[in-house]
């Protein structure tokens, strides 16, 4: 096993990786910006390296400085966590070129899925269902109007390099498309350095269901069932659960086979997730592949009993998967909610100083958090404070456990989305499993 791993990330995911490394007696190296000098992930790692000033572009996105820190500290591997540089093929190549192990897929696999246009082509070739749309990038507004006319309005105009809901625009008419094409391309160039865009047919009120994969380096792969992540705000997930109330055994098997085909098409290894849109008739369509650990991975851990970070380490070190698909089972029901420093009404970041924090405890309750007491939530990074995960023998009991846990969750000093999470968890629509991607909009409209 590895002797020392540098964690190229921060906050709760850095702490999560440290916990699994400790079980293998692997030394850990944290990196930190000046804003995180006193952060828990820095104190809990065996060693730590300052990487730059607070702005993320000058610290956690400094790929060359991070790889040099890994070399200087005598690390033999780098874990990227999620977000930041985790899906940056150039960063993975730097790690590989330095003679270190990147704990994740190969740089080629990351690059293959990094372009949504390229990924759609690859998936179509692999027989994975994709949403009807342009076969490649649309080069001009005239081409976009032609394609939209063929597939029918409304359509989604999407940035090929987009993510987190940025670079997506719903378009209902040719006139809207003309305006959106220019503005969306400018935004994509600004955020992602590429204005390449493509078109997809708009799927109304879908569910967002994803399949967790594990592949070793010897071609063995399994799917670890599904997570439903339909409850979102600004196209970013707020609540995830497993299993999905909407997925039948037959659909689960079909989506699992399709996800494995997606992974095999690019020679994937390590942990990855294939995201699908599922329409009201249970047709499913490839959305994208996340070539990294997901924020919501604890949901899968709770229902399978597997430690996904542990298996990332094992696979990266060259171990074969220790189980086959038929040996896997899904036990009980798990729900995760993301606790953000944000205004619960406007749903915009609300950084500041946490003056008091009380986390819920009890059977089947797990907290993956970046802070455990008074602390500053800076404006420089994602405002997620942590994740609350609950597990029980069935969905009804898991919802009851979630409601009880949220009732005792206390954060003072800043605004958080806890009121919104409590409202969601207690709603009849959630209890009934009516969880489409427009869930929050419908909840707000019902008031």
UniProtKB/TrEMBL annotation:
InterPro entries: ATP-grasp, BC-like_N, Biotin_carboxylase_complex, Biotin_carboxylation_dom, Biotin_COase_C, CPAse_ATP-bd, PreATP-grasp_dom_sf, Rudment_hybrid_motif. SUPFAM superfamilies: Glutathione synthetase ATP-binding domain-like, PreATP-grasp domain, Rudiment single hybrid motif. Its EC number is 6.4.1.2. GO terms for molecular function: acetyl-CoA carboxylase activity. The keyword Ligase applies. This is Acetyl-CoA carboxylase biotin carboxylase subunit. The keyword Ribosomal protein does not apply. Pfam families: Biotin_carb_C, Biotin_carb_N, CPSase_L_D2. Gene3D superfamilies: ATP-grasp fold, B domain (3.30.470.20). Residues 1-445 form the Biotin carboxylation domain. It comes from the Bacteria. Residues 120-317 form the ATP-grasp domain. Keywords: ATP-binding, Biotin, Ligase, Nucleotide-binding. It comes from Alicyclobacillus fastidiosus.
């Amino acid at each position: 096993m590895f002797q020392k791993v540098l964690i190229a990330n921060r906050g709760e995911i850095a702490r999560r990786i440290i916990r699994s490394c400790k079980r293998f007696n692997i030394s850990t190296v944290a990196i930190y910006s000046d804003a995180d000098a006193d952060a828990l992930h820095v104190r809990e790692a065996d060693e730590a390296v300052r990487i730059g000033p607070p702005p993320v572009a000058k610290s956690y996105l400094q790929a060359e400085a991070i790889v040099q820190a890994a070399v200087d500290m005598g690390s033999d591997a780098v874990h990227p966590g999620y977000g930041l540089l985790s899906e940056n093929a150039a960063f993975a190549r730097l790690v590989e070129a330095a003679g270190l192990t990147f704990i994740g897929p190969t740089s080629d696999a990351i690059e293959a899925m990094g372009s949504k246009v390229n990924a759609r082509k690859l998936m179509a070739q692999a027989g994975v269902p994709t949403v009807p749309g342009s076969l490649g990038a649309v080069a001009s507004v005239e081409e976009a109007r032609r394609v939209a006319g063929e597939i029918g309005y409304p359509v989604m105009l999407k940035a090929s390099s987009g993510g987190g809901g940025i670079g997506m625009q719903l378009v209902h008419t040719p006139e809207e498309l003309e305006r959106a094409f220019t503005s969306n391309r400018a935004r994509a160039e600004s955020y992602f350095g590429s204005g390449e865009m493509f078109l997809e047919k708009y799927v109304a009120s879908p569910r967002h269901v994803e399949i967790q994969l594990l592949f070793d380096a010897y071609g063995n792969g399994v799917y670890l069932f599904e997570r439903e992540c339909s409850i979102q705000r600004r196209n970013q997930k707020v609540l995830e659960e497993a299993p999905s109330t909407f997925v039948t055994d037959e659909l689960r098997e079909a989506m699992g086979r399709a996800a494995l085909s997606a992974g095999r098409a690019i020679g994937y290894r390590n942990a990855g997730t294939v995201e699908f849109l599922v329409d009201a008739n249970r047709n499913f369509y490839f959305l994208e592949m996340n070539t990294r650990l997901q924020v919501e991975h604890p949901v899968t851990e709770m229902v399978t009993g597997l430690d996904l970070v542990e298996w990332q380490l094992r696979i990266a070190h060259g171990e074969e998967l220790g189980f086959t698909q038929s040996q896997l089972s899904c036990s009980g029901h798990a729900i995760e909610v993301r606790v953000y420093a944000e205004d619960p009404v406007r749903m915009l970041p609300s950084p500041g100083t946490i003056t008091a924090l009380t986390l819920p405890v009890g059977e089947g309750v797990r907290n993956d958090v970046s802070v455990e007491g008074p602390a500053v939530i800076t404006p420089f990074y994602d405002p997620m404070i942590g994740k609350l995960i609950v597990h029980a023998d069935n969905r009804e009991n898991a919802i009851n456990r979630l409601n009880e846990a949220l009732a005792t969750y206390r954060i003072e000093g800043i605004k958080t989305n806890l009121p919104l999470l409590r409202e969601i968890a207690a709603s009849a629509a959630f209890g009934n499993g009516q969880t489409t991607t427009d869930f929050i909009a419908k909840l707000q409209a019902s008031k």
